[in-house]
Amino acid sequence: xxxxxxxxxxxxxxxxxxxxxxxxxxxxxxxxxxxxxxxxxxxxxxxxxxxxxxxxxxxxxxxxxxxxxxxxxxxxxxxxxxxxxxxxxxxxxxxxxxxxxxxxxxxxxxxxxxxxxxxxxxxxxxxxxxxxxxxxxxxxxxxxxxxxxxxxxxxxxxxxxxxxxxxxxxxxxxxxxxxxxxxxxxxxxxxxxxxxxxxxxxxxxxxxxxxxxxxxxxxxxxxxxxxxxxxxxxxxxxxxxxxxxxxxxxxxxxxxxxxxxxxxxxxxxxxxxxxxxxxxxxxxxxxxxxxxxxxxxxxxxxxxxxxxxxxxxxxxxxxxxxxxxxxxxxxxxxxxxxxxxxxxxxxxxxxxxxxxxxxxxxxxxxxxxxxxxxxxxxxx
Length: 380
Fold this sequence. Notes:
Strand order of the largest sheet: 18-17-16-15-9-14-13-10-19
Mean pLDDT: 93
Oligomer: single chain
Distance between the termini: 30 Å
Protein backbone atom coordinates (compact mmCIF):
# COMPACT_ATOMS: atom_id res chain seq x y z
CA UNK A 1 0.00 0.00 0.00
CA UNK A 2 1.19 3.51 -0.69
CA UNK A 3 2.35 5.68 2.19
CA UNK A 4 0.14 8.65 1.42
CA UNK A 5 -3.07 8.93 -0.54
CA UNK A 6 -5.44 11.78 -1.26
CA UNK A 7 -9.08 11.08 -1.98
CA UNK A 8 -11.95 13.25 -3.00
CA UNK A 9 -12.14 13.20 -6.79
CA UNK A 10 -15.62 14.37 -7.66
CA UNK A 11 -16.57 15.24 -4.07
CA UNK A 12 -15.96 17.73 -1.30
CA UNK A 13 -14.29 15.08 0.83
CA UNK A 14 -10.53 15.57 1.24
CA UNK A 15 -8.32 13.36 3.34
CA UNK A 16 -4.64 12.56 3.54
CA UNK A 17 -4.04 9.27 5.31
CA UNK A 18 -0.54 8.06 6.28
CA UNK A 19 0.11 4.38 5.55
CA UNK A 20 -3.33 4.28 4.02
CA UNK A 21 -5.61 1.30 3.83
CA UNK A 22 -7.26 2.31 0.56
CA UNK A 23 -10.54 0.48 0.18
CA UNK A 24 -13.25 0.11 -2.41
CA UNK A 25 -16.65 -0.87 -1.06
CA UNK A 26 -19.02 -2.69 -3.41
CA UNK A 27 -22.52 -2.56 -1.96
CA UNK A 28 -24.53 0.23 -0.37
CA UNK A 29 -26.65 -1.65 2.18
CA UNK A 30 -26.18 -2.27 5.90
CA UNK A 31 -23.00 -4.30 5.46
CA UNK A 32 -21.49 -1.67 3.18
CA UNK A 33 -21.96 0.86 5.98
CA UNK A 34 -20.42 -1.47 8.56
CA UNK A 35 -17.36 -2.13 6.40
CA UNK A 36 -16.94 1.56 5.55
CA UNK A 37 -17.08 2.55 9.19
CA UNK A 38 -14.49 -0.12 10.06
CA UNK A 39 -12.11 1.12 7.38
CA UNK A 40 -12.35 4.67 8.70
CA UNK A 41 -12.00 3.50 12.32
CA UNK A 42 -8.70 1.90 11.35
CA UNK A 43 -7.56 5.22 9.84
CA UNK A 44 -8.01 4.09 6.26
CA UNK A 45 -9.95 5.65 3.44
CA UNK A 46 -12.89 4.41 1.42
CA UNK A 47 -11.77 5.86 -1.88
CA UNK A 48 -14.80 4.69 -3.85
CA UNK A 49 -18.16 2.95 -3.70
CA UNK A 50 -20.31 1.17 -6.26
CA UNK A 51 -23.84 -0.12 -5.83
CA UNK A 52 -26.79 -1.53 -7.68
CA UNK A 53 -27.41 1.89 -9.24
CA UNK A 54 -25.45 5.12 -9.70
CA UNK A 55 -28.02 6.91 -7.55
CA UNK A 56 -27.50 4.53 -4.60
CA UNK A 57 -23.74 4.80 -4.94
CA UNK A 58 -23.88 8.60 -4.93
CA UNK A 59 -26.22 8.70 -1.93
CA UNK A 60 -23.88 6.36 -0.04
CA UNK A 61 -20.86 8.48 -0.98
CA UNK A 62 -22.51 11.63 0.28
CA UNK A 63 -23.49 10.20 3.68
CA UNK A 64 -20.53 7.93 4.46
CA UNK A 65 -17.43 10.00 3.79
CA UNK A 66 -16.49 8.17 0.58
CA UNK A 67 -14.17 9.71 -1.98
CA UNK A 68 -16.23 9.05 -5.10
CA UNK A 69 -19.15 7.05 -6.49
CA UNK A 70 -18.75 4.66 -9.43
CA UNK A 71 -21.49 3.50 -11.75
CA UNK A 72 -19.38 0.47 -12.73
CA UNK A 73 -18.08 -1.82 -9.97
CA UNK A 74 -15.37 -3.25 -12.23
CA UNK A 75 -14.09 0.24 -13.01
CA UNK A 76 -13.73 0.90 -9.28
CA UNK A 77 -12.11 -2.49 -8.62
CA UNK A 78 -9.44 -1.80 -11.25
CA UNK A 79 -8.64 1.71 -9.98
CA UNK A 80 -4.98 2.32 -9.21
CA UNK A 81 -5.76 3.90 -5.83
CA UNK A 82 -7.54 0.79 -4.48
CA UNK A 83 -5.61 -1.74 -2.39
CA UNK A 84 -8.45 -3.77 -0.83
CA UNK A 85 -11.90 -4.51 -2.25
CA UNK A 86 -14.75 -5.06 0.21
CA UNK A 87 -17.50 -7.14 -1.42
CA UNK A 88 -20.80 -6.43 0.39
CA UNK A 89 -23.40 -7.41 -2.22
CA UNK A 90 -25.97 -10.24 -2.56
CA UNK A 91 -24.44 -13.70 -2.42
CA UNK A 92 -24.66 -14.61 -6.11
CA UNK A 93 -22.37 -11.67 -6.95
CA UNK A 94 -19.62 -12.59 -4.49
CA UNK A 95 -17.73 -14.86 -6.87
CA UNK A 96 -17.59 -12.70 -10.02
CA UNK A 97 -16.62 -9.54 -8.14
CA UNK A 98 -14.08 -11.33 -5.95
CA UNK A 99 -12.46 -13.11 -8.88
CA UNK A 100 -12.29 -9.81 -10.77
CA UNK A 101 -10.61 -8.14 -7.79
CA UNK A 102 -8.06 -10.93 -7.41
CA UNK A 103 -7.32 -10.81 -11.14
CA UNK A 104 -6.68 -7.07 -10.74
CA UNK A 105 -4.17 -7.77 -7.96
CA UNK A 106 -6.37 -6.50 -5.14
CA UNK A 107 -6.73 -7.95 -1.68
CA UNK A 108 -10.34 -8.88 -0.86
CA UNK A 109 -12.71 -8.89 2.09
CA UNK A 110 -15.80 -10.78 0.88
CA UNK A 111 -18.95 -11.11 2.93
CA UNK A 112 -20.24 -14.54 3.89
CA UNK A 113 -21.37 -16.93 2.68
CA UNK A 114 -18.31 -16.83 0.47
CA UNK A 115 -20.30 -18.35 -2.42
CA UNK A 116 -23.66 -19.97 -3.05
CA UNK A 117 -22.03 -23.41 -3.41
CA UNK A 118 -18.90 -25.12 -2.16
CA UNK A 119 -17.44 -25.67 -5.63
CA UNK A 120 -17.41 -21.94 -6.34
CA UNK A 121 -16.04 -21.22 -2.87
CA UNK A 122 -13.20 -23.65 -3.62
CA UNK A 123 -12.48 -21.81 -6.90
CA UNK A 124 -12.31 -18.48 -5.07
CA UNK A 125 -10.06 -19.89 -2.37
CA UNK A 126 -7.69 -21.36 -4.95
CA UNK A 127 -7.60 -18.10 -6.93
CA UNK A 128 -6.62 -16.14 -3.81
CA UNK A 129 -3.89 -18.64 -2.96
CA UNK A 130 -2.51 -18.59 -6.50
CA UNK A 131 -2.47 -14.79 -6.53
CA UNK A 132 -0.76 -14.65 -3.13
CA UNK A 133 -3.24 -12.04 -1.92
CA UNK A 134 -4.96 -11.52 1.42
CA UNK A 135 -8.52 -12.86 1.18
CA UNK A 136 -10.73 -12.46 4.25
CA UNK A 137 -14.27 -13.58 5.05
CA UNK A 138 -15.89 -11.66 7.93
CA UNK A 139 -16.62 -14.19 10.64
CA UNK A 140 -16.50 -11.12 12.81
CA UNK A 141 -17.76 -12.68 16.04
CA UNK A 142 -14.27 -14.17 16.41
CA UNK A 143 -13.20 -10.65 17.39
CA UNK A 144 -15.13 -10.45 20.65
CA UNK A 145 -12.46 -10.46 23.36
CA UNK A 146 -14.35 -13.06 25.38
CA UNK A 147 -14.51 -15.42 22.40
CA UNK A 148 -10.72 -15.20 22.26
CA UNK A 149 -10.60 -15.82 26.01
CA UNK A 150 -12.73 -18.96 25.63
CA UNK A 151 -10.43 -20.15 22.87
CA UNK A 152 -7.34 -19.55 24.98
CA UNK A 153 -8.82 -21.40 27.96
CA UNK A 154 -9.76 -24.42 25.85
CA UNK A 155 -6.31 -24.49 24.24
CA UNK A 156 -4.64 -24.30 27.67
CA UNK A 157 -6.62 -27.32 28.89
CA UNK A 158 -8.49 -25.30 31.50
CA UNK A 159 -11.74 -27.22 30.93
CA UNK A 160 -10.14 -30.56 30.16
CA UNK A 161 -11.02 -32.69 27.16
CA UNK A 162 -14.01 -31.22 25.30
CA UNK A 163 -16.81 -33.75 24.90
CA UNK A 164 -19.94 -31.63 24.33
CA UNK A 165 -20.81 -28.38 22.55
CA UNK A 166 -24.24 -26.88 22.04
CA UNK A 167 -26.12 -23.64 21.52
CA UNK A 168 -27.57 -21.86 18.54
CA UNK A 169 -28.21 -18.68 16.62
CA UNK A 170 -31.76 -17.31 16.81
CA UNK A 171 -33.33 -14.28 15.09
CA UNK A 172 -36.89 -13.22 14.27
CA UNK A 173 -36.52 -10.80 11.36
CA UNK A 174 -38.22 -13.15 8.86
CA UNK A 175 -40.98 -14.32 11.20
CA UNK A 176 -44.00 -13.12 9.21
CA UNK A 177 -45.00 -14.15 5.67
CA UNK A 178 -45.08 -10.54 4.47
CA UNK A 179 -41.39 -10.17 5.40
CA UNK A 180 -39.20 -10.86 2.40
CA UNK A 181 -35.60 -10.33 1.35
CA UNK A 182 -33.27 -11.27 -1.50
CA UNK A 183 -31.78 -13.95 0.77
CA UNK A 184 -35.02 -15.92 0.48
CA UNK A 185 -34.50 -16.42 -3.27
CA UNK A 186 -32.10 -19.36 -3.87
CA UNK A 187 -31.04 -17.85 -7.22
CA UNK A 188 -29.61 -14.87 -5.34
CA UNK A 189 -28.95 -16.03 -1.80
CA UNK A 190 -28.14 -19.67 -2.52
CA UNK A 191 -29.89 -22.94 -1.61
CA UNK A 192 -29.34 -22.49 2.15
CA UNK A 193 -30.67 -19.39 3.86
CA UNK A 194 -30.86 -19.65 7.66
CA UNK A 195 -27.91 -22.01 7.93
CA UNK A 196 -25.84 -20.41 5.18
CA UNK A 197 -26.42 -16.94 6.61
CA UNK A 198 -26.17 -17.39 10.39
CA UNK A 199 -25.55 -21.09 11.03
CA UNK A 200 -22.19 -20.61 9.36
CA UNK A 201 -21.28 -18.12 12.11
CA UNK A 202 -22.16 -20.64 14.83
CA UNK A 203 -20.14 -23.46 13.29
CA UNK A 204 -17.18 -21.16 12.71
CA UNK A 205 -17.28 -20.06 16.35
CA UNK A 206 -17.47 -23.68 17.53
CA UNK A 207 -14.47 -24.74 15.48
CA UNK A 208 -12.53 -21.56 16.31
CA UNK A 209 -13.04 -21.82 20.07
CA UNK A 210 -12.43 -25.56 20.36
CA UNK A 211 -9.76 -25.99 17.68
CA UNK A 212 -11.75 -29.06 16.65
CA UNK A 213 -13.58 -29.76 13.40
CA UNK A 214 -17.04 -31.08 12.65
CA UNK A 215 -16.80 -34.41 10.82
CA UNK A 216 -20.42 -35.63 10.66
CA UNK A 217 -23.81 -33.93 10.69
CA UNK A 218 -27.44 -34.95 11.01
CA UNK A 219 -29.87 -32.14 10.27
CA UNK A 220 -33.51 -31.28 9.75
CA UNK A 221 -34.74 -28.11 8.08
CA UNK A 222 -38.11 -26.42 8.43
CA UNK A 223 -40.19 -23.43 7.39
CA UNK A 224 -42.80 -21.35 9.13
CA UNK A 225 -43.70 -19.69 5.84
CA UNK A 226 -44.03 -21.58 2.56
CA UNK A 227 -45.11 -18.39 0.79
CA UNK A 228 -43.66 -14.92 1.20
CA UNK A 229 -45.02 -11.84 -0.47
CA UNK A 230 -47.11 -14.00 -2.80
CA UNK A 231 -44.36 -16.31 -4.03
CA UNK A 232 -43.32 -19.85 -2.97
CA UNK A 233 -40.32 -20.23 -0.67
CA UNK A 234 -37.70 -22.96 -1.21
CA UNK A 235 -35.10 -22.01 1.41
CA UNK A 236 -35.25 -22.94 5.09
CA UNK A 237 -36.41 -20.76 7.99
CA UNK A 238 -34.77 -22.98 10.59
CA UNK A 239 -32.39 -25.89 11.10
CA UNK A 240 -31.82 -28.34 13.93
CA UNK A 241 -28.37 -29.88 13.84
CA UNK A 242 -26.55 -32.75 15.52
CA UNK A 243 -22.84 -33.23 14.91
CA UNK A 244 -19.70 -35.12 15.86
CA UNK A 245 -16.15 -33.83 15.74
CA UNK A 246 -12.72 -35.21 14.92
CA UNK A 247 -11.76 -34.91 18.60
CA UNK A 248 -14.63 -37.08 19.75
CA UNK A 249 -17.06 -34.39 20.90
CA UNK A 250 -20.76 -34.45 20.10
CA UNK A 251 -23.31 -31.70 20.20
CA UNK A 252 -26.20 -29.84 18.69
CA UNK A 253 -27.39 -26.43 17.59
CA UNK A 254 -30.64 -24.71 16.67
CA UNK A 255 -30.55 -22.10 13.91
CA UNK A 256 -33.59 -19.93 13.24
CA UNK A 257 -34.62 -16.69 11.58
CA UNK A 258 -38.22 -17.06 12.83
CA UNK A 259 -37.96 -17.23 16.66
CA UNK A 260 -40.20 -14.46 18.05
CA UNK A 261 -38.38 -12.05 20.32
CA UNK A 262 -34.89 -13.30 19.48
CA UNK A 263 -32.95 -10.54 17.73
CA UNK A 264 -29.37 -11.80 17.49
CA UNK A 265 -29.02 -14.59 20.01
CA UNK A 266 -25.74 -16.35 19.24
CA UNK A 267 -24.82 -18.71 22.09
CA UNK A 268 -22.07 -21.33 22.36
CA UNK A 269 -21.51 -23.56 25.39
CA UNK A 270 -18.57 -25.96 25.50
CA UNK A 271 -18.20 -28.65 28.17
CA UNK A 272 -15.04 -30.55 29.00
CA UNK A 273 -13.99 -33.09 31.60
CA UNK A 274 -13.01 -30.31 34.04
CA UNK A 275 -15.31 -27.41 33.26
CA UNK A 276 -17.66 -25.55 30.94
CA UNK A 277 -17.62 -22.19 29.16
CA UNK A 278 -20.57 -20.26 27.74
CA UNK A 279 -20.46 -17.20 25.46
CA UNK A 280 -23.60 -15.18 24.68
CA UNK A 281 -23.14 -12.63 21.88
CA UNK A 282 -25.88 -10.41 23.32
CA UNK A 283 -23.87 -10.24 26.58
CA UNK A 284 -20.38 -10.07 25.11
CA UNK A 285 -18.56 -8.42 28.01
CA UNK A 286 -18.47 -11.62 30.04
CA UNK A 287 -17.82 -15.34 29.75
CA UNK A 288 -19.59 -17.82 32.01
CA UNK A 289 -17.28 -20.46 33.46
CA UNK A 290 -18.51 -23.47 35.41
CA UNK A 291 -17.08 -26.44 37.28
CA UNK A 292 -18.22 -29.05 39.80
CA UNK A 293 -16.95 -26.96 42.68
CA UNK A 294 -18.08 -23.50 41.65
CA UNK A 295 -19.26 -21.29 38.83
CA UNK A 296 -18.26 -17.76 38.00
CA UNK A 297 -18.12 -14.95 35.48
CA UNK A 298 -14.96 -13.94 33.66
CA UNK A 299 -15.04 -10.24 32.82
CA UNK A 300 -13.18 -8.32 30.14
CA UNK A 301 -11.09 -6.67 32.90
CA UNK A 302 -9.88 -9.94 34.40
CA UNK A 303 -6.24 -9.45 35.45
CA UNK A 304 -5.14 -12.74 33.88
CA UNK A 305 -6.98 -12.29 30.57
CA UNK A 306 -5.17 -13.99 27.70
CA UNK A 307 -2.97 -11.79 25.53
CA UNK A 308 -5.12 -12.31 22.43
CA UNK A 309 -8.29 -11.32 24.30
CA UNK A 310 -6.59 -8.33 25.93
CA UNK A 311 -5.37 -6.92 22.61
CA UNK A 312 -8.97 -6.79 21.35
CA UNK A 313 -10.27 -4.98 24.45
CA UNK A 314 -10.43 -1.54 22.86
CA UNK A 315 -12.13 0.44 25.63
CA UNK A 316 -12.32 0.18 29.44
CA UNK A 317 -14.83 -2.19 30.99
CA UNK A 318 -18.12 -0.39 31.56
CA UNK A 319 -17.94 0.96 28.01
CA UNK A 320 -19.44 -2.02 26.16
CA UNK A 321 -17.88 -3.34 22.99
CA UNK A 322 -20.10 -4.83 20.33
CA UNK A 323 -20.70 -5.77 16.73
CA UNK A 324 -19.08 -2.76 15.06
CA UNK A 325 -16.02 -3.08 17.29
CA UNK A 326 -15.58 -6.64 16.00
CA UNK A 327 -15.59 -5.39 12.41
CA UNK A 328 -13.18 -2.61 13.29
CA UNK A 329 -10.77 -5.20 14.70
CA UNK A 330 -11.22 -7.45 11.67
CA UNK A 331 -10.24 -4.63 9.31
CA UNK A 332 -7.27 -3.72 11.52
CA UNK A 333 -6.04 -7.33 11.33
CA UNK A 334 -6.70 -7.41 7.58
CA UNK A 335 -4.50 -4.32 7.22
CA UNK A 336 -1.83 -6.06 9.29
CA UNK A 337 -1.96 -9.08 6.97
CA UNK A 338 -1.79 -6.85 3.87
CA UNK A 339 1.34 -5.27 5.35
CA UNK A 340 2.95 -8.69 5.75
CA UNK A 341 1.86 -9.57 9.29
CA UNK A 342 0.28 -12.78 10.54
CA UNK A 343 -2.54 -11.68 12.87
CA UNK A 344 -3.92 -14.40 15.11
CA UNK A 345 -7.32 -15.78 14.13
CA UNK A 346 -7.96 -13.77 10.96
CA UNK A 347 -10.75 -15.63 9.08
CA UNK A 348 -9.68 -16.26 5.50
CA UNK A 349 -11.24 -17.79 2.39
CA UNK A 350 -10.36 -21.32 3.55
CA UNK A 351 -12.69 -20.68 6.50
CA UNK A 352 -15.40 -19.46 4.12
CA UNK A 353 -14.96 -22.62 2.05
CA UNK A 354 -15.23 -24.68 5.22
CA UNK A 355 -18.57 -23.02 6.01
CA UNK A 356 -19.86 -23.70 2.49
CA UNK A 357 -18.92 -27.38 2.78
CA UNK A 358 -20.71 -27.74 6.12
CA UNK A 359 -23.80 -26.01 4.70
CA UNK A 360 -23.92 -28.46 1.79
CA UNK A 361 -23.56 -31.38 4.19
CA UNK A 362 -26.44 -30.00 6.29
CA UNK A 363 -28.73 -29.71 3.27
CA UNK A 364 -27.77 -33.18 2.06
CA UNK A 365 -28.48 -34.66 5.49
CA UNK A 366 -31.86 -32.94 5.70
CA UNK A 367 -32.81 -34.00 2.17
CA UNK A 368 -31.80 -37.65 2.57
CA UNK A 369 -32.70 -37.99 6.27
CA UNK A 370 -29.33 -39.47 7.28
CA UNK A 371 -25.98 -38.72 8.89
CA UNK A 372 -23.57 -37.19 6.39
CA UNK A 373 -19.79 -37.33 6.64
CA UNK A 374 -18.27 -33.94 5.80
CA UNK A 375 -15.84 -35.68 3.45
CA UNK A 376 -18.76 -36.48 1.11
CA UNK A 377 -18.96 -32.80 0.09
CA UNK A 378 -15.52 -31.48 1.08
CA UNK A 379 -13.77 -29.53 -1.71
CA UNK A 380 -10.86 -28.45 0.48
